[in-house]
Write a sequence for this structure.
């Protein structure tokens, strides 16, 4: 009896082995195809597609398309650098498209440095990178005010004069005797003027704070370096973008001082008085006299970009009309890039 059972088990094992490796079993797997896109609808090349249920894997082509063997119930894993990993369970269909989200703060993020570009993982110096979405919002026409409060150690003091840019101190004491402001590098060109850049044209800002990061610029970088990269044209269909805003500014608080009548009363309490030649009986609120109740600002930016296989182009027009909070102060600016 025991010999018969052993023989039966061996025969069943052989039959199962034949089924598993026979063409009939392989027919249960199908060719699963699809496309992997980013948020903008563009195909992502180089995405690794792995079947959890087998050792099968594939890599997406330049247009994001892929093809892999799988059967119903198998789990496909999609992974790529700078993108969040995603899983997909195969159903009854054979075509599956997928959208992958970028991961924020990836260690492989490219950072602009003095000698060119590097990855954040390889950096050992103090560099802060900001994107347009990280900067301040509101009726702001000055790049300095965009950065205010966004970078540790970067001290920015805004000025009420609309024609005077914010004072920026990156390295050194914030005193009247402090060194000059940081050295600016715009699109790789040293010594640029940030007042000639429209905030809407900025693609990224890299703040280099320590000596190791700024060594290439010598003593010009003794007060730190701010590197600004502007938006460039991209290969593909031509694009026209418009952005604009309008807003009001007003004084949040005023100096609490005596008016003329209160000061006269105070002098009388001290047995003193103005000379008749100095007092004509006026009671002027000088803060009210020189300040506007509200200062109106409007900003308009229109840009054109695109390109083909052998050329890229980008152009922009920025118009700003900004009233200062002080009466008779204003700024009207037109920037063509």
């Amino acid at each position: 009896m025991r010999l018969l059972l052993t023989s039966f088990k061996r025969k069943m094992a052989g039959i199962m082995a034949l089924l598993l490796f026979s063409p009939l079993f392989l027919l249960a797997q199908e060719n699963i195809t699809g496309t992997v896109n980013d948020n903008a609808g563009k195909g992502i090349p180089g995405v690794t597609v792995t079947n959890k249920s087998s050792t099968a894997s594939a890599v997406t082509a330049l247009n994001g398309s892929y093809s892999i063997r799988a059967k119903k119930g198998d789990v496909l894993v999609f992974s790529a650098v700078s993108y969040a990993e995603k899983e997909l369970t195969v159903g009854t269909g054979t075509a599956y498209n997928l959208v992958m989200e970028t991961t924020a703060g990836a260690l492989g993020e490219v950072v602009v440095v003095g000698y060119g570009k590097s990855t954040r993982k390889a950096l050992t110096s103090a560099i802060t990178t900001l994107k347009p979405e990280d900067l301040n919002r509101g009726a702001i026409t000055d790049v300095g005010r965009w950065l205010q409060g966004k970078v540790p150690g970067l001290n920015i003091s805004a000025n009420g004069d609309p024609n005077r840019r914010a004072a920026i101190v990156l390295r050194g004491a914030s005193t009247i005797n402090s060194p000059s402001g940081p050295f600016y590098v715009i699109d790789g060109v040293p010594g640029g003027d940030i007042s000639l850049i429209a905030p809407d044209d900025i693609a990224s800002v890299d703040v280099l704070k320590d000596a190791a990061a700024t060594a290439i610029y010598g003593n010009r970088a003794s007060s730190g370096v701010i590197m600004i990269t502007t938006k460039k044209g991209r290969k593909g269909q031509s694009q026209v973008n418009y952005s604009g805003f309008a807003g009001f500014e007003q004084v949040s608080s005023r100096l609490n001082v005596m008016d003329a009548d209160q000061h006269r009363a105070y002098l009388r309490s001290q047995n003193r008085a103005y000379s008749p030649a100095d007092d004509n009986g006026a009671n002027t609120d000088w803060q009210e006299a020189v300040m506007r109740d509200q200062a109106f600002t409007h900003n308009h930016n229109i840009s054109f970009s695109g390109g083909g296989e052998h050329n890229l182009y980008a152009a922009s027009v920025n118009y700003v009309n900004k009233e200062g909070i002080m009466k008779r102060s204003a700024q009207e600016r037109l920037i063509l890039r």
Notes: The radius of gyration is 33 Å. The chain has three domains: 24-99, 110-230, 236-336.
